[in-house]
Structure formats: C-alpha cells, structure tokens
Model the fold of this input.
Amino acid sequence: MKNILLVILFCAVYQNGKAQNYIPTIKNNTELLYSCKLHGQTRSLSLVAQMPDDGLTFKLETRGVKSSIVMLPEAVKNGNALSFNQGETAPVLNLKPNETFFMISRSAYQDLVKKDFFVYNNITYNLDKKENNDGVSIDGKLVDTLHVIGQIEETEMWIVKNPEFPIIVKMIKNPLGINFTLEKVGDK
Done:
C-alpha cells in the first residue's frame, strides 16, 4: 500500500512539474535575447518586438548592426519561408509576403499541431515525438516546445507552443551555418 501511495505521489508531482513548462509570449516591446553561432563564431542578438497592424517587426541589434525586420500580416499568418537575413543590408528590411524571421507562421504551426509536420522553404519538418528531446531552458525554466527535424538536411528546431507567435527558440544543424538558442525573454 505504501508503494502504491508513493507511485501516485510521484506521478502527481511529475505531471504538475510537466504542466508548468514555460511558454514565452510576445507583446509590444518584448525583448528576445539569442545566442547565435554563425560559421564558428558566437554572437548575441537582441530582437525587440513591435506589432503594427497585425504584422510583426523585430528591432534587431547585434555587434553594431541595427535594423528593423518587418514581417507583413500575411507572412505572420500564412508564411512558408524563413528569412536568414542578418540585418546588415538596410536599416529597415521589409520581408517578402511569405517570409518570417525567427518564427514560423500561424498556419505552419497549425499544420504541425494537426498533421505532425509543416513545410517551410520547400523542406518538410516532422514532429519529433520522442519524450526526451533535449529541450530548451530559459532562466532555469523548461520551455514548452515542439521539436521538429527537417527531412532533407536534418535541421532541428524547437518551436514554442504558442499559436499566436510560434517563435523558434532553438535551431541546430542548419546547413547555412546559422544556429541559435533563445537565452532570455523580457520587456525592453
């Protein structure tokens, strides 16, 4: 009887701990601080969210580079391509109507949740259903994410479980040599 009570207590604590995973949200002036590995170099990158007219603009700052990356409302809703622009081409960069930056579109997120995959940049990303997939922690809190693996280059992404703003909190094995991890979320 004592063993049964211990098992029940363990399961309750485990479920409670698992249910308390952190889900970062984005609102005006939310700052996302990333650690980026670019071709063997490490640099920090700050993105501050601005939300004009159902779109999303990230004010990017990294090593003296300052740029505003503008995602159109149709890209936030139905985009199907990631932009890997590093903000060095213009002080304001208007992305294409299908491009997002450091996030996937809401429709891609819905595909992932409903179909266990989504297509971005003509690559299918499948949901990794393994329980232990080395999640991402921010300030000691495990982030509630969906882990996906690309079918072609095996790029891996961890996408926050937030249907409004499914930001990518971690990317590894990117064939472009751009890998990153979200380190901190706060208000600017």
Q: What stands out?
A: Confidence is low (pLDDT under 50) at residues 2-19. The radius of gyration is 18 Å. Residues 124 and 170 are 17 Å apart (CA to CA). The longest helix spans residues 2-19.
